[in-house]
Every structure is written in C-alpha cells, then in structure tokens.
Design a protein that fits this description.
Blueprint (H helix, E strand, L loop, with lengths): L3 H48 L3 E5 L5 E4 L1 H7 L3 H4 L10 H17 L1 E10 L5 E13 L2 E10 L1 H23 L3 E5 L4 E4 L1 H6 L22 H12 L7 E6 L5 E13 L2 E10 L1 H19 L3 E6 L4 E4 L1 H7 L3 H4 L14 H12 L4 E8 L5 E12 L5 E10 L1 H49 L8 H31 L7 E5 H18 L2 E7 L5 E5 H17 L6 E10 L2 E8 L21 H7 L5 H11 L3 E7 L3 E9 L7
Parallel strand pairs: 17-19
Antiparallel strand pairs: 1-2, 1-5, 3-4, 4-5, 6-7, 6-10, 8-9, 9-10, 11-12, 11-15, 13-14, 14-15, 16-18, 19-20, 20-22, 21-22
Helix pairs in contact: 12-13, 13-17, 14-15, 15-17
C-alpha cells in the first residue's frame, strides 16, 4: 500500500512530468513551426534566386558550392546538381584564381566584398567577364557566402568598341594632315602633330597653354575675335582663310574651320587647320602665269587633241585680227596661208601626236589676208596616265626679223661684192704700180737731161707724162689704202706723239704748194694739248689730205689756211679752215663718199681721185674719232676731226 505521503509525492511528479511533456510538445510544435517557416523561407529564397536576373551562388565557408540559381546554370552551362559541393576554384580561370580566392577569403573575414572585372569558366572552357558582389548570410542554419555575378559581356564589348573607336579617332587625329586644335577661348588645350608642324613646334606639348591670340597674325585679329565670339555663343564659325604666326614669328597661310563643343560641362572650341601655303603659292603662280599669258606679246593657243581651239590670248587677236569668239571652236587652219606644203603639216602633226615638242617657222595668214612669219612651238599636254589631252602653241611673230635677216643677207652679198671689188682693185693697183714707177723714173731721167738735152716740145711731153704718172700713182696708192681699210688689213701702231710737231711737219710738206697759190698758212695751238696716242704715219696722212684739199680748192687770188688744235675733254679737236671756193650745202653729205666728185667742172679744173676724204674719214674712225665738214659756198670750208687723247685698245 502506498502511503499517503508517497502518494502525494507521486502525484507531484506526475504533474511535473505532465508539465514537462506539455513543454516538450509545445517546443516540438514550435520547432515544427520554425522548420516549416524555414522551409517556406528557403523556398521563397530559392524562388527569388531562380527569378533573379543575375547569377547567384551560395558557397560554404570552405569554398564548396551549395546552390546555384537558374541564371548561373544558363551562364555556366551546368545544372545545380552538377555543381553541388564542387569547389569554387573549378569555375575560375587559372590566371585569375589567386586574385579571386583572395577576394573570397577577404569576404569571409569582412562579411562582404566586391570584385570587379573578374571571370567565370564555363563548362565548354570559355570565359565570361563578370562583376562579383558577395556577403555572408545565414542559410539552412549556418553561415554561407552569397555571391552575385553580373555578366558584363555586353559592357565589355561596348568598352572594347569604345576603345577601338577612340583608338581609331586618336590615330585619325594623329595621322591627319590637317592641324586639329582645341581651345577654351583663351588658351590651347590640345593640338595634334600636324598643328605643331604648321606652327613650327617640335611637338604638340609646346603649344599647350599658349594663348590662342598669340598665333593669330595681327592683320586677321579682328576677324578671329569675331569668330571666337560666335563660337562662344554656340554658333558654328564659317570656313575662312587667314594667317597664323609660327613660334618663330613667321607667317603661314591657313584655312580654318571651327565649331563649339561642350565637354565636361564647359565650352570648348574645336578647330581644323589646313596649311594652304603651297596652294597660295600655286594660286599666285597661276595668277602670274595667267597674267603673263594675257600680257605676253607672243600668240598663245590652247587646243584639244583634235586641234579644236579652246583659248587664245589677246596677242592672238592683235596679231591675227581674229577675235576670241571667231577663233574658239575652230582649228588653226584658219591661219593657213597655203605657202607650206602638206608634208610640212604632216611632219608637224606626226611630231606632236608622238608626244614630242614641235619647233618650226610657219607662214600664216591674218584675217585681212596679210601674211606673217611665226616662230612656233607646240607642246603636248598629258594627263596623269600619259595620254595627250591638249596642245599648247606659242607663236612669236618674226616678220620684221625675217625682213631684217633678208636685208642682212643682202648686205652681206653687197659687202662681199664690195670686198671682191676692193681686192680686185688692190691687185690691179699693185700690178700697175710697178710699170708706173719705171715710167716715172725714166721720165725724171729725161727731164733732168740725163739722156741728152730735150727740145721745148719734148720737155713739154715729158712733163705731161710725169704729171699723168704721178696722178695715176696717187690714185693707185689711195685705192690700196682704201682697199686695206675696207678689208680690215690696216693695223694702227699708236705711239705718243707731239701734236704741234706733227702739224708743223705736215705744214712743211705743203708749204711750197701753198706759196705757189699765194696762200698764207696760220696755226692756233692750245697749250693744254701737247700729246696724243695715235699712229703717227696715219695721223700725218689725215693732216696732209685735209691740207692738200684746202690748197687744191683755194681761190686764184690766194687766201688763208688756218690750222687749229685744242683739247676738248679727253679728245683732241683739230680743224683745217680755208678761204677757198666753199661747198654747196646739198653736197656736204657726199663729201666723204668713195670716188665722189661734187661736179664734173670741179673734177676737171682741180683734179683728184675722189678717194682722199673717204680715206681720211676711215682713218679718223679707225682711231676712234669722227670727222665732219662745215662750209659756205664761195667763202670757204672748215674740216674738223676729233681723236681720243689715249689710244683705243682695239687699235
């Protein structure tokens, strides 16, 4: 039997046991509820993972995969079951494992972490660029790492495309033959190598920070300031030609196009600059060439390959009489005169169509029918392939030159004939002088009675023979002198001679004849004139010829002969004046011609060969001087000549 005290104790234990059972049942219910809530939470988390747009992986703290979502399955090409419990390193490329594992370990230590520009390894061995974001969470009652992977393939492609685009544009800017510059309205912020070269810099860096207006030529400053104002207002500035200043201060012709641009919240001006120095020079050269063609005195014709005229210059119109309108569209046949045969023109066309330059003389016909000579040059013009497209013809009118050439040839023929005549006369004179000298010698023997005494009649005959022989000898000597001068065979032997002494010697030679004609000889000497350099023999011959003429043409009742010598600059001026019969004004111009007698009456009365003054003129000119005559008919004449004080080198 259970005692009362034991019974109460047993009841208390049962109550306590019941309470414990109740508590256990309650705890189990709560546990079951918690497990259900956890299952629901995990299901929700799983649903969220599977619906997420990014790849999500759950990894235990040892690095083994616990869960991957559908996006990860799609991204890696692996199912969740395949990936379970595999180490994360299997999904990381070898070259990135160390960096990625270090980031995972840091995530565990710090509870969160980020790793950008990482990569995941797909089942097929290819890689995917990703950004990773991780954190430590409670999952299934334990701490795990939740890592979210974002596929950045498209971003990487865009970045690569941007890099390629930037590289392309960078290379375009670097290799551009045009200068590219960026400025902020006051200073340069960027310049490429072409801009540096245009401005005379060795590198673009030399230009950075330079004031924009420092590179502008003063003449264009106002234009540029107006352009900058437009750019600051956001307006695109027009393309203009201006001048920049290089770093060394020299100007350069440029063409500038500028436009505003906003970058980083600030306004910039982008400029494209082209060096047009060569173009400007070419334009200037083209302008000069065009002006030269327009103003040249020579004819210029530009024709197509078939000969059709496309252009003629003003000289063409002036010389040919055809207007530009009349010539353009025609062929040069409009100038054909018919004076040259077909063979000539066949040769012309054959030459230029073979690509060679034609040179020749054409006889052309003007619009009015007048003929003219043209020295023609035709040059083929070829394109870049070497094909003839046009011809350029230049004609120099040489009509007057042709006439001059013909006149020159005629003069040469006349000179040759004159020279032949002179040589003939010289030869004949030489042949005649030998018997004349013998005749003179025998006549003088007879006159002096060495062959016996002569009767008055015989003496008269001998005097006539002697005078005739002496006249012929003088004529022959004059002819010989003249022929030598004209043949260029006389060589002067200049020496320093006294003018006074030589004049006195010449006067002494005619003193006897002057006395016979009742002539008074006078001299007037300039003390400043002492010496000259001349051929003494020829100088005396000049004096003797002039004095002889003065005596010969004196009046019957006598008169005066005056010899004057004075210095005039670097010349000696010598005059022979007489009070003789004088010369008619219309005859003065003929005085120095060969074989010239003023009239037959004088020739018969005074005699002479008609060569003395011609020879005198030639001798004066050989000395580098000149001679002239002044006369008043019936009162007398003055013959004056100038000789250099110093002999000419060619003497």
């Amino acid at each position: 039997m259970v005692r009362e005290g034991e019974k109460e104790a047993l009841i208390d234990e049962l109550v306590e046991l019941r309470q414990r059972v109740g508590e256990l049942e309650k705890a189990e219910t709560e546990r079951m509820r918690a497990e259900e809530a956890l299952r629901e939470s995990e299901q929700k988390y799983r649903a969220l993972m599977d619906d997420a747009g990014d790849a999500i992986i759950l990894i235990d703290l040892r690095g083994n995969l616990l869960e991957i979502n559908r996006k990860t399955e799609s991204l890696l090409g692996r199912m969740n079951e395949e990936a379970f419990n595999e180490h994360i390193s299997r999904y990381i490329p070898k070259n990135e494992r160390e960096r990625t594992i270090a980031a995972f370990e840091d995530l565990i230590r710090r509870g969160s972490g980020v790793l950008n520009d990482a990569s995941l390894l797909k089942k097929d061995g290819t890689t995917i660029p990703v950004d990773m974001t991780g954190s430590i969470i409670q999952y299934a009652g334990k701490k795990v790492a939740q890592v979210i992977f974002r596929d950045i393939s498209e971003r990487k492609k865009a970045e690569e495309a941007l890099r390629e685009s930037e590289e392309r544009y960078r290379r375009l800017v670097e290799l551009s033959p045009d200068g590219i510059m960026v400025h902020n309205g006051s200073t340069l912020e960027f310049a490429n190598m072409a801009a540096a070269k245009i401005l005379g810099a060795t590198s673009p860096e030399e230009l950075i920070g330079k004031p924009v207006l420092n590179i502008i030529h003063p003449n264009y400053m106002e234009i540029v300031k107006e352009r900058v104002r437009m750019e600051e207002e956001g307006k695109e500035a027009p393309l203009i030609e201006e001048k920049f200043l290089r770093l060394d201060g020299t100007p350069v012709d440029v063409e500038v196009m500028a436009f505003p641009s906003s970058h980083g919240g600030k306004m910039e001006v982008h400029s494209v600059v082209r060096d047009i120095t060569k173009r400007k020079r070419a334009e200037e050269m083209q302008r000069k060439l065009s002006s030269a063609v327009e103003h040249t005195a020579d004819i210029v014709i530009i024709a197509k390959k078939d000969g059709t005229i496309e252009y003629v210059n003003p000289a063409f119109e002036k010389i040919t009489g055809y207007t530009q309108e009349e010539a353009v569209g025609k062929t040069p046949r409009i100038l054909k005169s018919g004076k040259q045969d077909n063979k000539f023109y066949e040769h012309l066309w054959g030459t230029i169509l073979s690509g060679e330059v034609f040179y020749g003389v054409l006889i052309n016909k003007k619009n009015n029918g007048e003929l003219y000579y043209a020295e023609k040059t035709i040059t083929p013009v070829k394109d870049e392939h070497g094909t003839i497209t046009h011809f350029v013809s230049t004609d120099k009118e040489i009509t007057e030159r042709k006439k001059a050439e013909e006149m020159h040839l005629e003069n040469l023929r006349l000179e040759a004939a004159d020279k032949a005549k002179s040589e003939f006369l010289a030869n004949m004179s030489h042949e005649l002088r030998t018997p004349l000298n013998a005749s003179i010698g025998f006549s003088e023997l007879l006159k002096h009675g060495l062959a016996g005494e002569l009767s008055e009649k015989q003496e008269h005959f001998v005097d006539n023979i002697l005078k005739s022989d002496q006249f012929l000898l003088t004529l022959i000597n004059d002819i010989l002198d003249l022929s030598k001068i004209e043949a260029g065979k006389i060589e002067l032997a200049p020496e320093k001679i006294s003018v006074h002494v030589t004049i006195k010697e010449a006067l002494s030679l005619i003193k006897e004849k002057a006395s016979m004609h009742n002539l008074l000889l006078k001299t007037e000497f300039d003390p400043a004139l002492e010496f000259i350099e001349a051929d003494k023999q020829r100088f005396k011959q000049i004096l003797f010829n002039l004095l002889g003429n003065a005596v010969k043409f004196s009046k019957e009742d006598g008169g005066t002969i005056t010899m004057t010598a004075k210095k005039e600059g670097d010349m000696a001026k010598i005059s022979v004046s007489d009070t003789g019969i004088g010369i008619k004004e219309e005859n003065i111009g003929r005085l120095f011609h060969k074989f010239e007698q003023l009239d037959s009456g004088i020739s018969k009365k005074y005699g002479g060969t008609g060569l003395g003054l011609a020879i005198t003129k030639q001798l004066v000119e050989l000395h580098g001087g000149k001679i002239w005559a002044e006369s008043k008919f019936g009162e007398g004449s003055t013959f004056t000549f100038l000789l250099p004080l110093a002999a000419r080198k060619q003497m």
